[in-house]
Design goal:
This protein is mostly helical. It contains 1 helix and no strands.
Amino acid sequence: MEEPPLKQLQNLESRIAFQEDLLQKLDDALSGQQRQLLEMQRHIELLTQQIKVLMQEIPDTPESPPPHY
């Protein structure tokens, strides 16, 4: 037996409301992840710069062997 049209309409409205809520939650989660990703990229750039500076400070000549050799 089929549901009356009014009940079908109410069910559809309920499903749409649920889907809109779910889409909003997904959008919020995606926005949060995008912010995290941008921050992590910024941190990686800073770390890369620090490594470059440290690499320039390290002498290219190998260490001499310890005195007991």
